[in-house]
Amino acid sequence: MTDLVSPSLAKHRKYHVFSFMIIIAFIFISFSETFLSMFHIWYTSEAFQHGMLIMPISLYVIWLKRHKIKLVSFNVNYYGFVAVFLLCLLWLLGDIAGVQLVKHFVVMSLFSAVVLTCFGFSMFKTLLFPLGYLLLAIPFRAPFVYPLQQVTADMVYFGLQLTSIPVFREGQLVHIPAGTFEVAEACSGVNFLIAMVTLSILFSYLTYSSYKKRFIFLMLSIIVPVIANGLRAYFIVLAGHFISMDVAGGADHIIFGWQFFGVIMLLMFWVGHKYADHEESVRS
Amino acid sequence: MIRRVAAKVIFTSCIVLVLILLTPYAAKSINEKYSLASQNTYTSLTDLDGWKYTNLKHNSEDIPSITMADFVQEGIFRSGTERIDAYKYVYSSTHGGKEIIHHRNVMYDKKAWTLVKKKTISLTYNNKKYKLSEYQVTKGQKTRIIRFFYLINKRYATSDYAVKLYELFAKLRRENMDSRLYVFSMDSENNLANTEKRLNDLTLAFFQHLDI
Fold it and tell me: What is the pLDDT of residue A241?
């Protein structure tokens, strides 16, 4: 493979790679505060611990593409420079307004813009997936929590009515004769949904070559966890009704939740793998 | 050929590097300039048409958990036997946790109260519709309605996004930051409709006072 790159080409590639490394180093130095705040969230929030794995996963996918990368010609792309400029401007506005989310988005997007600037569009296209995957490291979930709590409460209420268990619903509170359940933030299933979508994007990229299959799997990775979470909450209320409120409301129900989600996740990937495309077609 | 390529690569990289190095520096100097310029004048919660206001320290479990505000005022509005708790928080900064929209800032103590519902309601004042965020929370047998809205340099807002945008516009226009959060809460004595009505009455009277 290396024979395909002439010595002069290899020499001019060095300039591109060297510039890229320097710029990346300075991105980490200049925006260290933004990276540290993101790292702090990854480290402290249960919902975003997967954020720490995103960069290594992206690097792994780039490594998988190493043979293809060797064949790509390098060019300086001025659109990339424009993208860097606009992202820096956005970071500035985000900082003035005090919006961490915007700053996190910018620092994770800067990698793509710098790849485009230093290596050109062909390389950017080749690395589109690992560069886009980096955006999944951005801690962002707040708008989904309350709607998911509502969906879960709706499903529990519907399930209890369907199984003729007396129930009264008051917003996120579900009252049954044995007691009252709160569909709390932890019951929204948002953590599981985020983990599932993050893994499913990687899985569908590495397993399928058809965009249709990838899209279907991704949609399932959103729908299945939401339904599974509704069922989990319903089973917990059933346990409260038929066994005892202590069993249903104790710490065990959270452990049960993760075990239940683990099984659902394995099932999803097992079924998904049955429809896998040939490795060669996926790589190409 | 190689020299030309190298020159192009190095030139572009240098410009990118300058951009990357300058951005945080520019942000820092802009933020420092504005925080030095910030001089707030605070108008207080006061008596309103049909409502008598008294400053009062509330039980820590009952107050919103709003941190690092530059100015806090808490008290009660009374009308006959009815009572509405009122809070005002003012921020002159948008940084380092000293900011009105922050994940630590919540309208009720989550350890003491349970959220039942949240919704947005509309009130018409001066032929204009104003939205307010409303939470219904419970603690044992107690039910409470909490309503809140923001005034960012006299611009009315209910959503976090609007607050952030207004703060950004205010800074870009070189205005002194004056971000305010107003919270009204009332316990419901098994009559949610009456609680909502009384909160509407107070809010409309308050809008008149604010002259928004």
Answer: 87
Contact B151, B89 (CB under 8 A): no
Handedness of CA A124, A127, A133, A134 (dihedral sign): negative
Please answer yes or no on whether A97 and B12 come within 8 Å at the CB atom: no
Q: Starting at the earlier edge strand, list the strands of the sheet with A168-170.
A: A168-170, A173-176, A179-182
Q: Alpha-carbon distance B211 to B204, whole Å?
A: 11
| Tokens 């062909």 sit on residue | A122
Per residue in A151-178, pLDDT (tens digit) is 999 999 999 999 999 999 988 889 999 8
The beta strand positions in chain A, using DSSP E, are 168-170, 173-176, 179-182
Mean pLDDT of chain B: 86
A81 touching B, CB under 8 A?
yes
Count of other CB atoms within 10 angstroms of residue A164 = 7
pLDDT in tens, A20-67: 999 999 999 999 999 999 999 899 887 788 899 999 999 999 999 999
Mean pLDDT of A184-203: 90
Instruction: With a cut of 50, say whether residue B96 has pLDDT above it.
Output: yes
Tell me the C-alpha distance between A232 and A183, whole Å. Answer: 11
For every residue of B176-205, DSSP letters joined together read PP-EEEEEEEEEESS-HHHHHHHHHHHHHH
State the complex-level ipTM. Answer: 0.76
pTM comes to 0.81
CA pair distance A23, A16, nearest whole angstrom: 11
Query: Do the Cβ atoms of B24 and A33 come closer than 8 Å?
Result: yes
Q: Give pairs for A34-38: CB < 8 Å, separation 24+.
A: A34/A91, A34/A100, A34/A103, A34/A104, A34/A106, A34/A107, A35/A107, A37/A100, A37/A103, A37/A104, A38/A104, A38/A107, A38/A137, A38/A138, A38/A139
Query: Which residues is B138 bridged to in the sheet?
Result: B114, B143
* Position A283 pLDDT exceeds 60: no
The span from the CA of A181 to the CA of A202, in Å, is 36
How many residues are present in chain A? 284
CB within 8 Å: A88 and B12: no
> What tokens appear for A120 in the block?
């050109």
A61 and chain B in contact, CB less than 8 A: no
Chain-centroid distance of CA A29 in Å reads 25
Structure tokens at B86: 């009122």
Query: Hunting for tokens 């690395």 — which residue is that?
Result: A127
Say which of A91, A99, A171 has its CB closest to residue B23: A91
8 Å CB contact of B24 and A23: no
Spatial separation of the C-alpha atoms in residues A111 and A270, rounded to whole Å:
33
Q: How far are the Cα atoms of A6, A228, B61, B113 from residue A185, in angstroms, in the given order?
A: 58, 16, 20, 13
